[in-house]
């Protein structure tokens, strides 16, 4: 490992932790299912942790981050580091092993719903949200952090421990349901929390740590004057701690804005800037009072996308920064948690695409290489002119896009569509449905793999999938669902499946990225113009519909979600790429209609993931995101019912955007915040069909009938029953049949209760 004395420094803010071959995922799931022991899980975790810092130290980084490993989620880890166990879980503290208690917080159980799953700063990662109340008592529990530091130190590697900053930890937490103090806010606990950080600093300093990294991503969002003042007060206090390492405070995922001069005025030693998403010129840096005296971690290598850095331009940029901030460390813009491990293990990415890519290992190399070039000059090979790769544009795609008019984004009026759909579908009040996916058996995953490796014929594969679709269809009929789904058994992922069937995408074999816990995805790489060569879903949906008289939904992924969950080309505006995707989806809808499919769901669960973190730019984004969805669905016939599925937000601008999507039915991920949805219904902000997700599909917990009845009944107070739908808040792919079947039966029973009560009231009124 190099040192800063050798010249300009190099570091990264974090690294993937699921394992190059998803070793942690498999160890976790084996343990959860009783197929592996605790010791086996801990051994896998320890090996991944140690391999990470050994490999990073060997690259020549001048600083290696530590405490970046997590069994499930780093935000929850940080809450528990300071003893913030939610009050409602305290009865389990004496009953369960600490690791099992941790997993119960994450996954829940019958009598203990899990912590809420929340999106992480515009990325595809989701964290478990800590719960705090006025009685929360913080108590440092630093054994794991110190143990890792000492193990690395014994190998001659000094780690820079990474800890979530105290203000962000509180702002990212929620007020616990156990709180009884009116007006309580999580930030009220700041004064009680800071002494525990000081204790941690003292312990790390005594262990030999020279620097600790404190991430404050919450300040790349708009913040109130009170919150900004809390940031200033925090680092004034922590920088005066009697015994501590140097403090590096980072602002990943965007521009620190008004927080930057506050940090620059404090006594902390270093500030990490995201200069990819919050680029600043040298003059802008020089204009911040006090910044010149800080060590600046210049985040010029993108931690969230997979495109190579332009070395020549970036080196020139770094030189300009070094002229005004001479104590400079080349770094990533954020943790590399959001990109795959290693490009070199991929063998199917087209060469002209692969030449433009960098995964986590390659990005570390870029950081080290840039720091060396800044110190001693560019290497000989740098003097070669950069190779610019221009992918051939598809004239037919461009011509069709240029021919789009506002009329292509408009359907018949909602009330006209509603009447036509009621006549065609004849559904009962409060129809019960799912949101698409059903569990993927090991046999189906194996069949898909064997097809991919050429060990199974397509005819045999079709037979296997059809058998699974029939089984899923019969199960739904037996449960009593009103609108069925085919189960998506042929799909590996809601985005990757479609990417593999469209031109303009490249997909990976090993490019796994953690979404939450053991859940991983392989985001595709969108590099060129989008073409749908042939129908993508009609074969499977039509087969399912042939098995039943009940309507079976066509299941598609919307254009914005395809963007948000892919690594997207950077040579044209996002809205143009979104419209290309929308036209491909529009064609698929037309093919499904021709096949007789009456309900088509176009999922947009990620529409909020691209929402700018600051208010500036949100209106423009929502306009083109809504336009893309409406271009995709604008050609549907009035009698075709268009559903969508998305994550709810209480922000007025997002509620307005949901309404402007003009979907006939909107299913909403809002299990733990369902009252936001109910308020929107009461305010008539959502005037079309709505399905407030009444139980969390990602949890192993089985909701009872009374609980579901209560939530549906509350929704029914504000919306007529023929606009209200009953559904879980997401797909069921990660569940087991023993979990989903009783949950869905309880949901059907709750909806039928509601119908009976409504019919009884109607009879009495008559």
Tell me the CATH architecture of the largest domain.
Answer: Alpha-Beta Barrel
Derived structural class: alpha/beta
Arithmetic mean of pLDDT: 92
Strand content: 5-15%
Radius of gyration: 26 Å
Intertermini distance: 83 Å
How many strands, which pairing sense, and closed or not: the largest β-sheet?
Answer: 8 strands, parallel
Which CATH class of the largest domain? Alpha Beta
The count of helical stretches stands at 26
Total domains: 2
Using brief descriptors, characterize the structure shown.
alpha/beta, TIM Barrel, 2 domains, 766 residues, globular, 6-stranded parallel sheet, 8-stranded parallel sheet
Explain this structure.
The protein is an alpha/beta fold and 766 residues long. It folds into 2 domains: 4-83 and 132-376, TIM Barrel; 395-765, TIM Barrel. Helix content is 41%, strand content 13%. It has 26 helices and 23 strands. The strands form 6 sheets. An 8-stranded parallel sheet has the order 1-12-11-10-9-8-6-2. Strand 3 and strand 4 form a beta hairpin. It starts with 8 loop residues before the first strand and ends with a helix. 48% of the residues are buried. The model has no long low-confidence stretch (mean pLDDT 92).
Compact overview of the structure:
Helices cover 41% and strands 13% of the residues. The protein has 766 residues and is an alpha/beta fold. The protein has two domains: 4-83 and 132-376, TIM Barrel, CATH 3.20.20.210; 395-765, TIM Barrel (Alpha-Beta Barrel).
């Amino acid at each position: 490992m190099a040192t800063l004395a050798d010249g300009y420094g190099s570091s990264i803010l974090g690294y993937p932790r699921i394992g190059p071959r998803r070793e942690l995922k498999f160890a976790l799931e084996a343990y959860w299912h009783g197929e592996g022991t605790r010791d086996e899980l801990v051994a896998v975790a320890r090996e991944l942790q140690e391999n990470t810092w050994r490999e990073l130290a060997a690259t020549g980084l001048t600083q290696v981050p530590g405490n970046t490993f997590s069994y499930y989620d780093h935000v929850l880890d940080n809450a528990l580091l300071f003893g913030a166990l939610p009050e409602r879980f305290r009865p389990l503290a004496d009953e369960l092993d600490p690791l099992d208690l941790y997993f119960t917080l994450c996954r829940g159980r019958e009598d203990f719903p899990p912590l809420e799953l929340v999106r992480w700063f515009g990325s595809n990662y989701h964290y478990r949200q800590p719960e705090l109340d006025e009685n929360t008592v913080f108590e440092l529990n630093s054994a794991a952090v110190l143990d890792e530091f000492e193990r690395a130190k014994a190998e001659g590697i000094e780690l820079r421990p990474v800890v979530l900053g105290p203000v962000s930890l509180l702002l990212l937490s929620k007020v616990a349901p156990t709180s009884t103090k009116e007006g309580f806010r999580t930030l009220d606990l700041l004064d009680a929390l800071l002494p525990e950080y000081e204790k941690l600093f003292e312990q790390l300093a005594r262990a030999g740590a020279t620097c600790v990294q404190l991430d404050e991503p919450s300040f790349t969002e708009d913040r109130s004057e009170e919150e900004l003042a809390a940031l200033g007060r925090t680092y004034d206090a922590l920088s005066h701690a009697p015994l501590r390492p140097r403090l590096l405070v980072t602002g990943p995922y965007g521009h620190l804005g008004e927080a930057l001069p506050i940090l620059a005025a404090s006594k902390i030693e270093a500030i990490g800037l995201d200069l990819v998403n919050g680029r600043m010129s040298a003059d802008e840096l020089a204009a911040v009072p006090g910044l010149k005296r800080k060590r600046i971690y210049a985040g010029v290598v993108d931690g969230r996308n997979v495109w190579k850095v332009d070395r020549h331009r970036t080196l020139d940029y770094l030189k300009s920064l070094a002229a005004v901030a001479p104590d400079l460390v080349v770094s990533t813009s954020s943790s590399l948690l959001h990109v795959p491990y290693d490009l070199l293990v991929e063998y199917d990415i087209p060469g002209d695409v692969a030449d433009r890519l960098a995964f986590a290992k390659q990005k570390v190399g870029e950081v080290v290489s840039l720091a060396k070039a800044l110190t001693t000059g560019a290497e000989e090979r740098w003097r070669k002119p950069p190779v610019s790769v221009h992918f051939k544009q598809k004239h037919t795609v461009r011509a069709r896009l240029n021919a789009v008019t506002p009329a292509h984004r408009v359907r018949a009026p909602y009330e006209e569509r509603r009447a036509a759909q009621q006549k065609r579908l004849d559904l009962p009040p409060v129809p019960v449905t799912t949101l698409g996916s059903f569990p993927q058996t090991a046999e189906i995953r194996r069949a898909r793999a064997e097809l991919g490796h050429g060990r199974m014929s397509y005819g045999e594969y079709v037979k296997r999938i059809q058998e699974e679709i029939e089984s899923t269809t019969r199960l739904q009929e037996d449960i009593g669902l009103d609108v069925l789904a085919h189960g998506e058994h042929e799909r590996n992922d809601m985005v990757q499946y479609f990417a593999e069937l469209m031109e303009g995408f490249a997909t990976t074999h090993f490019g796994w990225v953690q979404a939450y816990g053991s859940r991983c995805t392989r985001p595709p790489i969108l590099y060129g113009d989008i073409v749908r060569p042939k129908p993508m879903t009609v074969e499977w949906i039509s087969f399912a519909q042939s098995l039943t008289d009940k309507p079976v939904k066509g299941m598609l992924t919307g254009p914005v979600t395809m963007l948000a969950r892919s690594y997207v080309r950077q040579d044209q505006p996002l809205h143009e790429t979104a419209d290309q995707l929308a036209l491909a989806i529009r064609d698929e809808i037309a093919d499904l209609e021709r096949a007789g499919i009456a309900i088509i769901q176009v999922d947009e669960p990620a529409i909020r993931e691209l929402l700018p973190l600051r208010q500036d730019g949100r209106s423009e984004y929502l306009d083109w995101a809504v336009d893309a969805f409406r271009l995709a669905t604008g050609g549907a016939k009035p009698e075709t019912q268009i559903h969508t599925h998305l994550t709810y937000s209480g922000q007025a601008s997002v509620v307005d955007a949901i309404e402007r999507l003009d979907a006939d039915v909107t299913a909403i991920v809002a299990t733990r915040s369902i009252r936001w949805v109910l308020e929107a219904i009461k305010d008539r902000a959502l005037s079309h069909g709505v399905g407030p997700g009444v139980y969390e599909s990602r949890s192993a917990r089985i909701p009872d009938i009374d609980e579901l009845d209560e939530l549906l009944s509350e929704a029914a107070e504000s919306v007529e029953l023929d606009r209200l739908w009953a559904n879980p808040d997401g797909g069921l792919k990660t569940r087991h049949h023993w979990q989903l079947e009783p949950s869905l039966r309880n949901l059907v029973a709750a909806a039928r209760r509601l119908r009976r009560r409504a019919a009884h009231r109607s009879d009495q009124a008559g």
